[in-house]
């Protein structure tokens, strides 16, 4: 018997496709489980898997990637706040789903966001589902280490909503009362069976692990469970999976938020009206070594690589902050200055996003292509260029780019 059987079992149980992670990840997961169970023969292990749910469960725990953190992609939470404040009705709690919730950071971030906006605990309810029992137990315990807090997590919220015990942060109990964490598989027929139930669905960083058949099933279930005019928040690389004829992107290019829209004209991706301010997350700059290597190869764009490059970090931050509050012209002016001193994929990506948000699609495309010229695997630039091409109606190339973005995100 071969590893193929392991791949089949994992796919059947979770929907996770071997191509999303590579065969090695699957065989490592099986080897780890076999070692733990002191089984040396793959054939014996497969027989065990076929007969024991416990063994299959251990294998699932070993293969899943629970990577998550508080306020991952901050702009999604801005979108949640904006949407909730605009649409909530008296005496009707806003229903929110976080699927997959992993260890709970996404659901708690949603709760913190709404608390911060002054919503009372009984004005919203959060369901948070994940296939992993370990993740759900972790979420219910509400104890987190430093790794759950990244640069996107506002420090103020850490002080307000967590207590430090030893090296762990314990979440404030008041946030737990209206979150229901449950261990559930999205492919379970009973899950998301009630139509038009949720006002907001977070489904981020799950679909990237599925093949197109499973993606379609999952998105179909999410679509049914989301109310008409409800908000769908999706991961960076997953936007192309959202059916263009059923959803309208929010004005925020960066948050990957979509509104479920009845009778939408197919292909009409453009939202009319004034763009609202949105959040430009600070992206991880490429390490100086990587940057220099790329730039050396692309000397026609870059000044002499031997020259010491000015540190433009603070200016980038300033440009992002201005873009956040809708001051696109000022943000672009700073980007142009940075560009003349030290061109980088990060700067071109931000310029591309700003132009896209401002509906200057041609300009946006040019900038994102320059970013990709400098860093062909820049996941953020790939994802945004894909969105932009989608807006222009070039679905085929948008899909190709999104596949590349998915590939590089899955590898990171
Ligand atoms: C990378 S985490 C994403 C967490 C969070 N949504 C985020 O974006 O930070 C992916 C999660 O998907 C869960 N998962 C994988 N297959 C699943 C399935 N079929 N049903 C429900 N959850 C699943 C895994 O257990 C893992 O916790």
What is the CATH top level name of the largest domain?
A: Alpha Beta
Q: Can you name the CATH architecture of the largest domain?
A: 3-Layer(aba) Sandwich
Ligand identities: S-adenosylmethionine
Form type: globular
**Cα-based radius of gyration, to the nearest Å:** 22 Å
Mean pLDDT: 85
- Low-confidence segments: 266-307
Number of strands: 10
Count every helix, treating DSSP H or I runs of 4 or more residues as helices.
Answer: 17
What does this structure look like?
With 412 residues, this protein is of the alpha/beta class. It has 3 domains: 3-63; 74-260, Vaccinia Virus protein VP39 (Rossmann fold), CATH 3.40.50.150; 288-411, Tetratricopeptide repeat domain (Serine Threonine Protein Phosphatase 5, Tetratricopeptide repeat, Alpha Horseshoe), CATH 1.25.40. The protein contains 17 helices and 10 strands. The strands form 2 sheets. Strands 6-2-1-7-8-10-9 form a 7-stranded mixed sheet. Strands 3-5-4 form a 3-stranded antiparallel sheet. α4 (42-51) crosses α5 (53-63), α12 (313-324) runs antiparallel to α13 and α14 (345-357) runs antiparallel to α15 (361-374). The longest helix has 17 residues, at 395-411. The two termini are 31 Å apart. Residues 14-16, 64-68, 72, 100, 102, 106, 130-132, 135, 185-187, 204-206, 235 line the site of S-adenosylmethionine. Residues 14-16, 64-68, 72, 100, 102, 106, 130-132, 135, 185-187, 204-206, 235 line the site of S-adenosylmethionine (SAM).
């Amino acid at each position: 018997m071969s590893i193929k059987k392991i791949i089949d079992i994992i796919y059947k149980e979770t929907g996770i496709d071997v191509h999303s992670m590579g065969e090695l990840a699957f065989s490592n997961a099986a080897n780890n489980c076999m070692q733990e169970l002191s089984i040396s023969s793959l054939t014996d292990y497969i027989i065990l898997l076929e007969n024991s749910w416990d063994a299959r469960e251990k294998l699932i725990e070993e293969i899943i990637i629970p990577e998550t953190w508080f306020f991952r992609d901050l702009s999604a939470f801005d979108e949640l706040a904006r949407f909730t404040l605009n649409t909530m009705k008296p005496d009707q709690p806003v229903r929110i789903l976080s699927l997959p919730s992993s260890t709970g950071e996404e659901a708690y971030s949603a709760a913190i966001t709404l608390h911060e906006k002054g919503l009372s605990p009984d004005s919203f309810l959060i369901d948070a589902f994940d296939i992993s029992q370990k993740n759900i137990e972790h979420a219910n315990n509400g104890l987190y280490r430093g790794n759950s807090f990244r640069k996107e997590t506002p420090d103020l919220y850490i002080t307000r909503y967590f207590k430090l015990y030893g090296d762990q942060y314990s979440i404030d109990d008041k946030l737990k009362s209206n979150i229901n964490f449950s261990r559930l598989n999205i492919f379970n027929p009973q899950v998301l069976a009630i139509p038009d139930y949720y006002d907001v669905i977070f489904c981020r960083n799950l679909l990237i692990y599925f093949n197109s058949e499973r993606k379609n099933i999952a998105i179909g279930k999410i679509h049914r469970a989301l109310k008409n005019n409800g908000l769908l928040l999706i991961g960076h690389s997953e936007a192309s999976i959202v059916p263009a004829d059923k959803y309208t992107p929010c004005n925020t290019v960066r948050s990957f938020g979509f509104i479920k829209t009845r009778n939408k004209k197919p292909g009409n991706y453009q939202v009319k009206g004034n763009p609202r301010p949105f959040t430009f997350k600070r992206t991880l700059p490429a390490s100086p070594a990587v940057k220099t290597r790329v730039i050396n190869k692309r000397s026609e764009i870059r000044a002499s690589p031997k020259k010491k490059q000015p540190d433009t970090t603070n200016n980038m931050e300033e440009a992002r902050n201005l873009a956040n509050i809708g001051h696109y012209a000022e943000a672009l002016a700073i980007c142009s200055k940075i560009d003349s001193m030290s061109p980088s994929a990060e700067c071109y990506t931000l310029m591309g996003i700003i132009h896209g948000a401002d509906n200057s699609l041609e300009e946006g495309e040019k900038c994102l292509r320059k970013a990709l010229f400098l860093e062909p695997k820049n996941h953020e630039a790939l994802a945004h260029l894909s969105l932009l091409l989608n807006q222009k109606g070039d679905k085929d190339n948008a899909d190709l780019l999104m596949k590349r973005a998915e590939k590089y995100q899955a590898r990171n």
